[in-house]
Backbone:
């Protein structure tokens, strides 16, 4: 369809180009890498919340699963980084499959259960009893695969994939079907949609994205603790960025990441409590006054948001 | 073509046969021993006082609930307990008493989704005739949440029709409509029946029932107590009592 | 060992009932998920630690003060946040996000004002001598906390079942719209329930240093999850269910800590997920699944 192709060119291509070229203009590659991580995570949240209405309060569980899958593949299977990323992605999908029964729950119950699941996997991985496998709470140090430039490029590819998925959902009838399921599952079933299957596909796609970028993160940093990759901050930031920008659009999460993560890096790193206060207030104001995010404001002014 | 249910020769027998259907919720027997059938092109009314089980009956037929006993045969195959989306694929669909459109989608998108996922046709099809039929064509690009409630009812009906059903269950379509709208809706239902659709119409408004249905079933407290034409029903003592209450014994 | 675990579990169970009760009350009355619940518990805990440290005020007195203070705070907070929320498209889901935001605000403000260090109260603030029950010996702090929790739970039941406003509250819990139609001032009843819910959280917080150890401003999330586990096991919206949930949770936690101590931290999460999957309506409750 022409419209979707045009929008793909307008959004995806500049995004990839900017992401790929940015390190040549800005020295802090770690910061750029983190921006890419959040861009991908926000789109992942977008897929599951914007299109199916489930709020993944424990989204970081997939991120961490991907990271540890990667780490375990490198440490125990001596896999190369690309193969290890595949293992990381697979780990995240397996974790997603294990949690699919949660999709039977209604909104708030799902959110809390998902949070509990993420905390559970974090607790399991960091348990000293599993030290021989996961190194427990002592952290992982992957030798021989540190490659910031290469892993950064792969991250750009993952970002392209994540953004591409959302573009697909935005303009396809499968995306419409997901929104239908979100709006009214009973009516959607009568429209011929296999509700369970549709939700599961969106869920696993969302898990895949987080798993991929999580594995990529493990590769990029090569040294991390359970707290680093299971930090609730990942879930929280991704949700807030997606909500702030506006879910069920492609640009919304991008806007959210650029504006809010940018803000965080300007004032938040030195005084995290102040940033926490601001974004807490921001979330409250958002829910009360602009629950559909910036994109809804733009739409009100007549601007079509991709 | 507005919709084309595959032609079924009239002599092929009933499209839907419900036999001794029962449904229980906890200790409450919502349906017991209900039996009837519907033929292609026929409009069967399902009437009864509040709480008699009419909507439950539709809910069971369209897969929202599993029956506890009895059988439901569609085109000769048992369908009791199948999931709603599978029933939609087989050609069974329904509208809802309180319309349930997809609020964040436009009118056109509402129908597109049902067309793509509900009908077996692989061609995208043209939704224009359907929207025209329901007088929603001028509103194609509007969000479903912006429609009036009468329009939402038509959209709900449209969603069901876009799946190209052969059996359509209609749940209190007449409620809340003004006389002009009622006339339009009853015309539409009769047109659908003439095209070969089998219709099961749950309704409270007797005038609507008279206009639309060929015959009717009366439910009372979950049981079917009468089957026949409306005029026969009005002369049946039990039916009258069920609707108006027993006359005083003096 | 086993008897000790079970009895200790019951003591903790009573305490966990109190922890969960406020959350359940708020959800039951207005279908709002207070994800900041644990942070109010934390505020009560830090308040009690502060009052004890600065003025040697007994935690029980602190609890009473907290209850009154948070009821007074809860009322306007309700009117500020909830009516707008209830008018939105999906109050249950949006409430999670809204109160999550509130939780971040509370946590950050507390860290800014009071610093991130862990606070606690010495156990003998609630009694010098260990108490013996059925041949098992427990720190008196545990027993006093459990008894205080039991008293609080009892008071809530008396409120709900034997006061006029309590009966109105239960009417709103059963059917909000109907209650509105019969002329009940649903706003006032809800506001009061909201305040009491927060107050109960704070009271539970006052005993948290004795039952759960040191508390920091970041302790809110864990406390919230534990509260959810308690009320979901019992069933969301049912006060009696919270009592059951608390006792089951307490005993399970104690048994885990005794026999599988390195994995005991997993219990709240796994129990929560297991219950939600196997019997999502809890032991006493209502349907929570999608069609």
Residues:
């Amino acid at each position: 369809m022409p419209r979707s192709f045009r929008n793909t060119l307008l959004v995806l291509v500049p995004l990839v180009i900017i992401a790929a070229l940015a390190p040549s203009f800005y020295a802090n590659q770690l910061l750029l890498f983190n921006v890419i991580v959040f861009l991908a995570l926000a789109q992942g949240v977008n897929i599951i919340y914007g299109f199916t209405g489930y709020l993944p309060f424990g989204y970081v569980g997939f991120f961490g699963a991907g990271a540890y899958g990667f780490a375990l593949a490198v440490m125990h299977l001596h896999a190369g980084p690309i193969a290890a990323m595949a293992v990381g992605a697979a780990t995240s999908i397996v974790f997603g499959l294990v949690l699919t029964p949660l999709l039977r729950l209604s909104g708030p119950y799902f959110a809390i259960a998902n949070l509990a699941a993420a905390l559970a996997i974090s607790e399991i991985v960091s348990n000293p009893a599993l030290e021989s496998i996961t190194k427990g709470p002592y952290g992982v140090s992957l030798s021989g695969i540190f490659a910031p430039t290469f892993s950064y490029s792969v991250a750009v590819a993952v970002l392209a994939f994540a953004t591409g998925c959302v573009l697909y959902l935005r303009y396809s009838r499968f995306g419409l079907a997901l929104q239908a399921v979100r709006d009214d599952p009973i009516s959607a079933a009568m429209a011929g949609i296999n509700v369970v299957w549709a939700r599961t596909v969106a869920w696993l796609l969302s898990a895949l994205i987080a798993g991929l970028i999580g594995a990529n993160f493990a590769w990029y940093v090569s040294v991390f603790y359970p707290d680093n990759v299971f930090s609730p901050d990942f879930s929280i930031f991704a949700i807030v960025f997606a909500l702030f920008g506006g879910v069920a659009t492609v640009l919304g999460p991008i806007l959210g990441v650029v504006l809010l993560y940018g803000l965080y890096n300007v004032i938040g790193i030195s005084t995290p409590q102040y940033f926490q206060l601001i974004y807490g207030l921001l979330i409250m104001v958002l829910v009360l006054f602009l629950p559909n995010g910036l994109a809804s404001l733009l739409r009100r002014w007549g601007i079509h948001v991709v | 073509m507005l919709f084309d249910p595959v032609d079924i020769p009239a002599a092929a027998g009933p499209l839907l046969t419900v036999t001794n259907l029962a449904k229980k919720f906890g200790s409450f027997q919502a349906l017991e021993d209900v039996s009837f059938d519907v033929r292609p092109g026929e409009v069967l009314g399902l009437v009864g006082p509040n709480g008699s089980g009419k909507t439950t009956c539709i809910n069971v037929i369209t897969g929202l609930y599993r029956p506890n006993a009895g059988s439901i045969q569609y085109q000769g195959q048992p369908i009791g307990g199948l999931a709603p989306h599978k029933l939609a694929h087989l050609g069974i669909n329904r509208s809802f008493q309180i319309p349930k459109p997809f609020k964040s989608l436009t009118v056109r998108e509402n129908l597109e989704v049902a067309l793509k996922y509900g009908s077996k046709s692989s061609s995208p099809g043209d939704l224009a005739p359907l929207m025209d039929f329901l007088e929603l064509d001028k509103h194609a690009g509007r969000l479903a949440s912006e429609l009036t409630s009468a329009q939402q009812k038509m959209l709900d009906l449209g969603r069901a029709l876009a799946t190209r059903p052969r059996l359509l269950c209609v749940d209190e379509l007449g409620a809340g409509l003004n006389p002009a709208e009622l006339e339009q809706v009853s015309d539409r239902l009769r047109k659908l029946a003439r095209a070969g659709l089998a219709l099961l119409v749950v309704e409270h408004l007797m005038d609507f029932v008279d206009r639309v249905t060929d015959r009717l079933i009366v439910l009372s407290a979950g049981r079917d107590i009468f089957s026949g034409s409306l005029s026969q029903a009005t002369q049946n003592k039990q039916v009258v009592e069920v609707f108006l209450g027993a006359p005083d014994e003096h | 060992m086993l008897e000790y675990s079970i009895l200790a579990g019951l003591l903790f169970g009573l305490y966990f009932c109190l922890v969960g009760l406020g959350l359940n009350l708020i959800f039951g009355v207005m279908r709002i998920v207070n994800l900041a619940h644990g942070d109010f518990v934390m505020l009560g805990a830090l308040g009690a630690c502060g009052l004890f440290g600065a003025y040697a005020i007994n935690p029980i007195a602190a609890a009473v003060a907290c209850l009154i203070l948070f009821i007074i705070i809860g009322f306007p907070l309700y009117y500020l946040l909830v009516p707008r929320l209830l008018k939105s498209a999906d109050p249950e889901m949006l409430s999670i996000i809204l109160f999550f935001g509130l939780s971040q605000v509370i946590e950050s403000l507390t860290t800014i004002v009071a610093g991130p260090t862990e606070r606690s109260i010495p156990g003998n603030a609630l009694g010098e001598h260990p108490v013996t029950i059925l041949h098992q010996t427990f720190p008196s702090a545990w027993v006093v906390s459990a008894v205080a929790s039991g008293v609080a739970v009892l008071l809530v039941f008396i409120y709900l079942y034997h006061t006029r406003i309590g009966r109105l509250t239960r009417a709103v819990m059963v059917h909000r719209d109907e209650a509105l139609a019969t002329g009940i001032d649903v706003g006032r009843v809800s506001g009061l329930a909201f305040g009491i819910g927060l107050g109960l959280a704070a009271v539970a917080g006052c005993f948290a240093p004795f039952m759960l150890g040191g508390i920091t401003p970041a302790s809110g999330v864990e406390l919230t999850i534990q509260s959810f586990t308690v009320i979901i096991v019992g069933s969301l919206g049912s006060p009696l269910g919270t009592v059951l949930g608390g006792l089951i949770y307490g005993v399970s936690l104690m048994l885990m800590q005794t026999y599988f101590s390195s994995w005991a931290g997993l219990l709240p999460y796994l129990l929560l997920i297991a219950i939600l999957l196997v019997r999502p309506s809890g032991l006493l409750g209502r349907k929570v699944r999608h069609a």
User: Anything to note?
Assistant: Residues 2-115+132-278 of chain C form a domain with the ABC transporter involved in vitamin B12 uptake, BtuC fold (CATH 1.10.3470). The radius of gyration of chain C is 18 Å.
